[in-house]
Amino acid sequence: MKAYEMKKFGFDGLTVVDHPVPQPAADQVLVKMHAWSLNYRDLMTVTGSYNPRLKIPQVPLSDGAGEVVAVGQEVKRFKPGDRVANTFFERWTSGTQTDEHARTALGAGRDGVLAEYVALHQDGLVTIPEHLDYVEAATLPCAALTAWNAVVIQGKVKPGDSVLTLGTGGVSIFALQFALLCGARVIITSSSDEKLKRAAELGAHMMVNYRKVPEWGKHVRELNGRGVDLVVEVGGKGTFNQSVAALRRGGTLSLIGVLSREGEANIVPVLMNAIRVQGIFVGSREMFLSMTEAITLHRMRPVVDRVFRFEEFPEALKMMQKGGHFGKICIMA
């Protein structure tokens, strides 16, 4: 079978190799992969900025979807023909994440899923909603579940709440969609008026171009009257202070991304306004299942910007590096 390996850091270190098709152990499921999606973590992993001490060669990517073709003798949850997506953490099934759970993350320490076939523990798979195709389903393991955890599980967003989401990448667009499902009022930021227009078409209530409004945190607070209940913070140090400024007293900041590493975070307003800062690192299988139930009930569809072919994986990474995408970048077998 074909698989990508990182032989060294950098795009020129990506090589398509031939591996034997894995044979599933007693508790494993063999999946023929049909589609994958990219996250910023994947770009950082390939370029070496995520973990410069990462042992290579390694198969990249954490997110994919495919068809079950064989199961081990102890597998009870799945059968050949089932359509599945993998989970980001192969063995985090429920409850609070432990160090052991964290070590089962795919694609940046353990081999990922950018291969024609993968064998995974049955705990590391979920059945995908019937109305989604494989490309759409491949967007769910990291970006969608991160947004679900931030908005629904930790954010506990309810009808009438206000949510601010930053930018128009995968996590942010999923956060917009999930917040709307919860009945929230959603504000979204971008440097592109065209992207803001597309966000409005998805249902965003207020749009802010942060290049035109540098003090966008204060502006959002004024737009909303008292500040928002939840900020889905994907920027990092460069946006943290503005995000805190947008929050109401006692609001929640779901800290997810590190896209911007410049700047200094001011923690004084966090203290003075009793802000709750909650780190979000994807989610468990139990969360994944609750998310797919909601997606199925509302017939929600992920937003996919562009789909590349398997052999175009380096070009897909370069598109992510340049930015400018709206929603998810995917790959199809």
Mean pLDDT: 95
Proportion of beta-strand residues:
25-35%
* H/I helix tally: 11
> How would you name the CATH homologous superfamily of the largest domain?
Medium-chain alcohol dehydrogenases, catalytic domain
What is the helix fraction of residues, given as a range? Answer: 25-40%
In the predicted model, the low-confidence regions spanning at least 5 consecutive residues are none
Rounded radius of gyration (Å): 20 Å
Silhouette: globular
Derived structural class: alpha/beta
Q: Secondary-structure element order, as H and E?
A: EEEHEEHEEHHEHEHEHEHEHEHEHE
- What is the CATH architecture term of the largest domain? Alpha-Beta Complex
Task: Work out the count of structural domains.
Answer: 2
Q: What fold name stands as the CATH topology of the largest domain?
A: Quinone Oxidoreductase, Chain A, domain 1
Largest sheet: number of strands, sense, barrel closure = 7 strands, mixed
Quick description:
The chain has eleven helices and 15 strands.
What would you note in describing this structure?
This protein has 333 residues and is an alpha/beta fold. The protein folds into two domains: 2-139 and 302-332, Alpha-Beta Complex (Quinone Oxidoreductase, Chain A, domain 1), CATH 3.90.180.10; 144-279, Rossmann fold. Helix content is 30%, strand content 26%. The protein contains eleven helices and 15 strands. It has helices at residues 40-47, 99-102, 134-137, 140-154, 170-181, 193-202, 216-224, 237-246, 268-272, 285-298, 313-322, and strands at 2-6, 14-18, 28-37, 63-71, 83-86, 117-121, 125-127, 162-166, 185-190, 206-209, 228-233, 247-255, 276-279, 304-309, 328-332. The strands form three sheets. Strands 3, 4, 5, 6, 7, 14 and 15 form a seven-stranded mixed beta sheet that branches. Strand 9 (185-190), helix 6 and strand 10 (206-209) form a beta-alpha-beta unit. The radius of gyration is 20 Å and the shape is globular.
